[in-house]
Design goal:
By secondary structure, the protein is mostly helical. It is 62% helix and 0% strand. The chain folds into two domains: 72 residues, no CATH class; 90 residues, no CATH class. The longest helix is centred in the last third of the chain and has 31 residues.
Length: 163
């Protein structure tokens, strides 16, 4: 199947994907999927994507994953997300991760979480992290809080000087 054929697939054709078929997609074919087509992939087919395929999903394709698709990602797929893919996840997608998926995030993936993503991690899901990963997350939260405080202090100083 050419990339042009892939990008022209409609909802019904995409819903007919089998696991065997999904596993055979090449890099160029995966990259040809539109964000709408990604959303049409049945959540039961998501685990069929190979580790090589998952790693080449674009940030836009990652962001297109629906709340029903996110929990169907395997722990291997999640653990192989690049830093850019982790940062591309929306807070709603982070919220949709299961405790098991959260527990399989690597140290580097935790360090890559943005200040917008962290509040989406419930305390219950944070408990799924190892003590080492919780420590990394705590340091990251402190870093963001310090940055916020510095920004606020600069704004306050600028305001006072402007009077």
């Amino acid at each position: 199947m050419t990339t042009k054929q892939i990008s022209s697939l409609n909802y019904n054709k995409i819903r007919m994907f089998t696991s065997q078929w999904t596993k055979k997609f090449k890099v160029s074919q995966i990259q040809a999927f539109t964000t709408q087509q990604i959303q049409w992939i049945d959540y039961e087919q998501i685990p069929a994507f190979t580790k090589e395929q998952i790693q080449i999903f674009t940030n836009q394709q990652i962001q297109a994953l629906t709340p029903k698709q996110i929990p169907s990602l395997t722990i291997l797929q999640i653990s192989l997300f690049t830093i850019e893919q982790i940062q591309a996840l929306t807070p709603e997608q982070i919220e949709g991760l299961t405790r098991e998926q959260i527990s399989w995030l690597t140290n580097q993936q935790i360090e890559a979480l943005t200040k917008e993503q962290i509040p989406a991690l419930s305390p219950r899901k944070m408990e799924a992290l190892s003590p080492e990963k919780r420590k990394i997350l705590k340091l990251l939260i402190n870093k963001y809080q310090n940055q916020e405080q510095k920004t606020k202090s600069k704004k306050d100083l600028t305001k006072k000087m402007g009077r």
